[in-house]
Amino acid sequence: MGLFDRVWNAAKSMAVGHAITIREMFHRPVTVRYPEEKPPFERGSRSVPVLKVNEATGLLNCVACGLCERSCPPSCIEIVQAVDAAGKKKPWPETFELDLSHCMVCNLCIEACPFDALEMADVVELSSYQVQDLIFSKDQLTELWKTSKALRVAGGERI
Amino acid sequence: MADDRGAFPQAPARGVRSGAAMAGHPGTGSAPEPVLDGDAPPEDVGRRLMTVNVGPQHPSTHGVLRLIVTLDGETVVRVVPDIGYLHRNFEKIVEGWAYPGIVPFSDRNDYLSAINNEIAVCLAVERLADIEIPPRASYLRVLFSELQRILSHLLFYGTFGMDLGAFSPFMYAFREREVAYTLMEKATGARMLYGYNRIGGLRNDVGDEWLRELEGFLDYVEGQAWPEYMGLLIDNEIYRARTIGVGRITQEQAIAWGASGPMLRATGIPWDLRKTAPYLCYDRLEFDVPVGKNGDTYDSAMVRMLEIKESIRIIRQVLRALPSGPVLAKVRPTVRTKPGDYYSRVESPRGEVGVFLVSDGGHKPYRLKWRAPSFCHLQMVPLMCEGWKIADMIAAVGSLDVVMGEVDR
């Protein structure tokens, strides 16, 4: 390729490139200014497993069976079952702790749960300066369920 | 030892570091010494060489890759890739995990093609556990893995342009990636690390509305975005001058170093696991395997750009042939495999992702070996870069499309 061809090609590719960028200038921007305006989450978007409250009774659906605890690959769920004064086991969790610093949001706990007690919430702004703050207690997870849009997707259904 | 280095009378003994690292360091109390590498081989002595660290925190090294580059002026004399900054001990950790948990964890290996990693694990486990996946799941897996290939190649296009100093293509690539990621989020619930595949199929089905949306996206990419990509970067004369002939590898070298995927096809070898060892329903689909000619960075980028078109073609066929039915086979909660081993391999956007699974009959793998294409490609960096200028080294490393999460595992 001679010098003339190269100069011609360079000029041509510059013209083509500028034509594309100039055309794009008249389009609406596709970006959003994040902290001020937030893009919406899609339905079923998942970021943290939360504890579902039964609408009728106001109690947790969780019966502390521990299936989610066992299905969790990085073992970030810790459940202690409630016991009464006589030492008899009760069907609700005394503590339900979720270590969000380990959680990889894989949805396996929700698929393991036979009691519809867990759902995936779509809250993402949960960052913290202290790693201890990422251990969510039972009350915090219930609060997150109440304040966010949570959904259970499992078992091959249509979304 | 120091005596046979005539050029530098003060040269330290071999193996003793001196020079830039310690010079002027508070507490040493010594004057700056001449810059010298204590480990320098004899042929370097007397040349005015300089050792530069490119990375691990450097915008042009694609993650935490550290390149220890020895320079003679602007020419690369030696380059040593240093890996391991992103090591997460994947292979050992999964020996203690039940099979369903390995699938979402494998997303983190090659985080730009998470679906392909999941498929590799699922294929191995399903083979050893004798699980037949439903036909719809097979087609949808192909659909998602091709959508993932488009996404990954778009990122390659953007970052490769940025490596060569062209910033605009990056923005254009991310414009389409945003649309595709939203599609992925609608279907899988996550934007990057999907956790979508399950042993025995997929977590959830997709609706018809989603499929129509996907078709619109494909039309947009093929009709409008792809020609823009070509005009902005690939056909540009500056880009061509920067890439043609740079970082060239021959067919023999590519095979000898275990290259796969676009790096191998750029040298002209039509080796694509979707054709040569079909998995899922690839044998029922019609597509071409784009190959290059010279094995340089231009060819490997061009192969990827053409693969975007082929992926669109595959997805269109899948959309036409998509059978109805369930997407998840009936699988027991605790998946147990029969004793034995199986090597499953899939064609990820970077090359051959292989999972060698050894089972002793339990619900956990006895051993799981992950074959990462980027790991093999990264070994070719010295081959491709030595003798070229430092700017060409950035182009060559960029054309490898390495993902450090996969290299370090």
List the helices and strands and how they pair.
The complex is a heterodimer of chains A (159) and B (409).
Chain A: H1 3-25, E1 48-51, H2 67-71, E2 77-83, E3 89-99, H3 108-112, E4 118-121, E5 135-136, H4 138-147
Antiparallel strand pairs in A: 1-4, 2-3, 3-5
Chain B: E1 49-54, E2 66-72, E3 75-82, H1 90-93, H2 99-106, H3 114-129, H4 135-163, H5 168-188, E4 197-198, E5 201-202, H6 208-234, H7 237-243, H8 251-256, H9 262-265, H10 273-276, H11 297-321, E6 340-348, E7 351-359, E8 367-371, H12 373-378, H13 381-385, H14 390-400, H15 404-408
Antiparallel strand pairs in B: 1-2, 2-3, 4-5, 6-7, 7-8
The number of distinct helices of chain B, counting runs of at least 4 residues, comes to 15
- How many domains of chain A? 2
Helix content of chain B: 40-55%
CATH architecture of the largest domain in chain B: Orthogonal Bundle
For the biggest β-sheet of chain B, the strand order reads: 1-2-3
Structural class of chain A: alpha+beta
Output the helix-strand order of chain A: HEHEEHEEH
Radius of gyration of chain B equals 24 Å
Order of helices and strands of chain B: EEEHHHHHEEHHHHHHEEEHHHH
Biggest sheet architecture of chain B: 3 strands, antiparallel
Describe the protein's architecture and organization.
- The complex is a heterodimer of chains A (159) and B (409).
- By secondary structure, chain A is of the alpha+beta class.
- Chain A folds into two domains: 1-30; 48-147, Alpha-Beta Plaits.
- Helices cover 27% and strands 18% of the residues of chain A.
- Chain A is built from four helices and five strands.
- Chain A has helices at 3-25, 67-71, 108-112, 138-147; strands spanning 48-51, 77-83, 89-99, 118-121, 135-136.
- In chain A, strands 2-3-5 form a three-stranded antiparallel beta sheet. Chain A has a two-stranded antiparallel ribbon with strand order 1-4.
- In chain A, strand 2 (77-83) and strand 3 form a beta hairpin.
- The longest helix of chain A has 23 residues, at 3-25.
- Chain B has two domains: 2-82, no CATH class; 90-408, Cytochrome-c3 Hydrogenase, chain B.
- Chain B is built from 15 helices and eight strands.
- With 409 residues, chain B is α+β, with helices and mostly antiparallel strands.
- In chain B, the strands form three sheets. Chain B has a three-stranded antiparallel beta sheet with strand order 1-2-3.
- Chain B has helices at 90-93, 99-106, 114-129, 135-163, 168-188, 208-234, 237-243, 251-256, 262-265, 273-276, 297-321, 373-378, 381-385, 390-400, 404-408, and strands at 49-54, 66-72, 75-82, 197-198, 201-202, 340-348, 351-359, 367-371.
- The two termini of chain B are 40 Å apart.
- In chain B, 44% of the residues lie in helices and 12% in strands.
- Chains A and B meet through helix 1 and helix 3 of A and helix 2, helix 5, strand 5, helix 6 and helix 7 of B.
